Amino acid sequence: MRIVVTGGAGFLGSRVIRALLAARGRKEGLPAFESILSVDLAPCPVEDPRVSSLVGDVAEPGFAARVVEAGTLGVYHLAAVLSGQSEAEFDVGMRVNLDGTRALLEAARATGEAPRFVFASSVAVFGGEMPEVVPETLAPMPASSYGAAKAMGELLVNDYSRRGFVDGRVCRLPTIVVRPGKPNSAASSFASGIIREPLAGVASNLPVPRETRLWLSSPDAVVGNLVHAMAVEGARIGPWRTLNLPGVCVTAGAMLESLARVGGAAARALVREEPEERVARIVCSWPGDFDVARPLALGFTRDGDFDGVVRQYRDEFVR
Amino acid sequence: MRIVVTGGAGFLGSRVIRALLAARGRKEGLPAFESILSVDLAPCPVEDPRVSSLVGDVAEPGFAARVVEAGTLGVYHLAAVLSGQSEAEFDVGMRVNLDGTRALLEAARATGEAPRFVFASSVAVFGGEMPEVVPETLAPMPASSYGAAKAMGELLVNDYSRRGFVDGRVCRLPTIVVRPGKPNSAASSFASGIIREPLAGVASNLPVPRETRLWLSSPDAVVGNLVHAMAVEGARIGPWRTLNLPGVCVTAGAMLESLARVGGAAARALVREEPEERVARIVCSWPGDFDVARPLALGFTRDGDFDGVVRQYRDEFVR
Ligand SMILES: NC(=O)c1ccc[n+]([C@@H]2O[C@H](COP(=O)([O-])OP(=O)(O)OC[C@H]3O[C@@H](n4cnc5c(N)ncnc54)[C@H](O)[C@@H]3O)[C@@H](O)[C@H]2O)c1
Ligand SMILES: NC(=O)c1ccc[n+]([C@@H]2O[C@H](COP(=O)([O-])OP(=O)(O)OC[C@H]3O[C@@H](n4cnc5c(N)ncnc54)[C@H](O)[C@@H]3O)[C@@H](O)[C@H]2O)c1
């Protein structure tokens, strides 16, 4: 009677595991799991007797069947090759993000128990010309191979759900800021960097124009929403299982203003503005604002304003 | 210097091959091919010294690389497991419609020549609630595994095109009527049956309500559009390569009226109306009308009225 978390060693995965442990028995609708299995290329950093860690590659043939066994109440599929690397290494990205997702869905199907299956997708499925506010019915036209593989994963999770193979929930996550730690291969990595680095007294670069709108969420808000995604009744979501998770719409310029207000003028002065074509091309293809009435009605939540997001990071990691 | 046609033994494939032979040197933009290779589980019925036939399974590992070799000017990927069978046999459908498409794209990529790649998709990618007229930006929410696999194929063709691996063109075909021959596994098979059978003096069934709107095209119009899809400049289509091919919006009831006008009251009387839930569920999830301003501006065409479609069939196959 366990919950499986692929990518359980990662930024979100490890936080989701901690949040699940805290929510167990408290959060309505959350399956009453006995244990959590982290599945990742790296061991899970969460130390708790209820958490075990399986190190391996979700896309390796045969591996997924060992991961999702009978008695699995739910699966979080968070393991992924992020956007920068997926663009640089096409085959690696497709193998992990498409084949890995399919292998896990097949393993879930093979249990015959239709476990809940939460898939982390991304606003990177969108591209091309975009309306000011993205409706739920906007066609994914990804401008990156990462977005393309995520969009295919969404279709798989939906079809597996329609057929009753899994009870799927696709969460298109906003860009998450502020990520602690080091920059990563995601094209959106700068969005955390321009807050995190200056608050640590380190220089950083804004590679996109100031007027670029970003759709953002704090780690806490996203993790809370991922726990909620496992807890909510599938029938309440309806037959189509893809949700644009709530976020806040902020321009890059407004982020720098929040940095100045929360971190001071010296921190703000550490951010230079040198355009980087590779990053701008990917990030500017993502939409800046969404109609999230339905997910909000389903109980998903979002941050207040962006100053609060910066303060959340500063209070936890800087002081 | 050849064109490859997968599904070349099929209904559309064999017609596309004949149309290509006729259009060569006449149709502006059409690559000046020397030969055509049909690839299908069955041998190609077209007898012409320029046409050769390779019998095999496009989803068989290693086979696609033999199919798309250096010097391939263009690929039509028409081989597919149709909607009825894909719903009944999930694994077969995914293997052919998803893995087969991917294998061909990989083979095309391996040539390093970015050949034109025309992919036959379908309005079956759509599902759920639909606006009266479908815009180009409507999200695919397939209500069948056939539609899901086609939607994934569309994403692959677009990403391979964006990366310069192929020069793709995705054609979402309307339902084609009147297909000569026998009923097939497609859920839309009745749409041809209710015209074809009565014109041959045979009884037929309408399994969906009369008010069901269908998005239809004659074989001639679709084949002409598929030839055009190979001929049109990729740059004219723009970065997103998916097109809803023009069709005509007709209700099932209006189809029966056309039958009565063109085939007579006796023919009309041969159609009974017994609802079939399995068929209705799939077909009623498909949209009935589309905004096709852009494809029309790109030179794609459609039939006049539905009476003409019925006459086209009667004149070619009944008399
Ligand atoms: N953080 C964001 O802003 C954001 C936004 C949208 C979507 N997402 C998605 O959320 C999920 C988690 O993202 P994150 O921010 O925690 O990233 P992360 O890189 O910190 O975590 C991903 C984890 O997946 C693991 N992994 C990669 N390939 C693997 C494989 N083949 N087999 C097993 N494990 C593998 C990595 O080791 C890593 O621990 C990803 O699916 C990501 O695409 C994140
Ligand atoms: N006819 C329509 O109304 C319609 C509508 C929308 C889309 N389409 C699409 O158009 C394409 C052609 O359809 P059609 O009407 O000619 O169907 P068809 O069944 O007559 O032709 C499909 C051909 O593919 C071949 N095939 C199937 N699996 C194969 C495999 N694994 N390897 C090699 N060949 C294989 C079959 O032998 C057949 O000859 C298909 O992709 C179909 O999905 C058709």
From TrEMBL, chains A, B:
Signal peptide residues on this chain, from the entry's feature table: none
Keywords: Carbohydrate metabolism, NADP
MF annotations from Gene Ontology: oxidoreductase activity
Pfam families: Epimerase
The UniProt record lists the keyword NADP: yes
Origin: domain of life: Bacteria
Gene3D superfamilies: NAD(P)-binding Rossmann-like Domain (3.40.50.720), UDP-galactose 4-epimerase, domain 1 (3.90.25.10)
CDD domains, alphabetized: Gne_like_SDR_e
Domain NAD-dependent epimerase/dehydratase: 3-222
PANTHER family: ADP-L-GLYCERO-D-MANNO-HEPTOSE-6-EPIMERASE (PTHR43103:SF3), NUCLEOSIDE-DIPHOSPHATE-SUGAR EPIMERASE (PTHR43103)
Protein name: SDR family oxidoreductase
Organism: Muricoccus nepalensis
